[in-house]
Here is the input.
Amino acid sequence: MKTTFRLLVGAACAFIVGAAGAQNYPSRPVTMEVPFAAGGPTDIVARQIAQAMTKPLGQTVIVDNKPGAGGTIASEFVAKAAPDGYTILIHHIGMATSPALYRQLRFNPMTDYEYIGQVVNVPMTLVARKDFPANNMKELAAYVKANSKKVNLANAGLGAASHLCGLLFQTALQTEVQTIPYKGTAPAMTDLQGGQVDILCDQTTQTTQLIQAKSIKAYGATTPKRISSLPDLPTMAEQGYPQFEVMIWHGIYAPKGTPKAAVDALVKALQAGVKDPGFRSAMDKLGTIAVADADVTPEGLRKHLKAEIDKWTPIIKKAGQYAD
Ligand code: ASP
Here is the structure.
């Protein structure tokens, strides 16, 4: 009896402290975990939105990179973090493709998070090192088919957007090439520019300026329409590959059980952040596409995540790619 009483008092105190803590939220900086290496596409979006959320939230949003295993290390870390609103995750389409790629996934995208909202959509581009022999998609297809044993394709690990895009590339060409996984496409791009790897499929947040400066070769955009910041780059559909289409969306997540007051504050800060002129102009220069207001909401993210899991699972299963 005594023990039960003590437990009840303890639980009540924890609830009161938790509720009071949630009401003062945020009283210290919030950490945003990024599942890929610093300096890459996801990190670029993360740092911009973290900065834009800082003012409306009233606390600094610190970016922390936890790269590895195609984004699943950071996702698991946040799923298991204290649900107090001080640890959040930014992730992209990989949240929807990992369940099909990893048989042993130690978190569930549909049940282990509170959803905050979508952030921004980012197109992908297929690029190669500057001195790669092929000069356009037609030449690339012919070269890769003829040299599939020696051509290599970098990616940011199984579950990364670059992995999914590379899968679509190989499916479009009906050819398999050697893939080289990195902890993010920032180090992959360094090696591509250094000539150590041949091809990479990567977000415009990282490739736009390099393509404009002609530091790398670009073959096409994976979007239905041409990218505004790269108007000369044809889409894959224009070049005869209508199935080679993918848009990289981003979402912000908190651990399941995060108090409603904290979730609400994060949602408000995100909604203000995506409209911030500094965020918008940085994103516009990098060829990104703003998301509709209705999607910068918990329900907007949840619905899109579910739809994307349903869309990509059969495609990945058909391609037969698994982590184990
Ligand atoms: N976004 C990249 C990818 O998914 C990884 C990164 O941000 O470094 O391939």
About this structure: The first strand starts at residue 30 and ends at 34. Residues 36-37, 40-43, 156, 160-162, 184-186, 203 surround aspartic acid (CB under 6 Å). The radius of gyration is 21 Å. Residues 2-23 form the longest helix (22 residues).
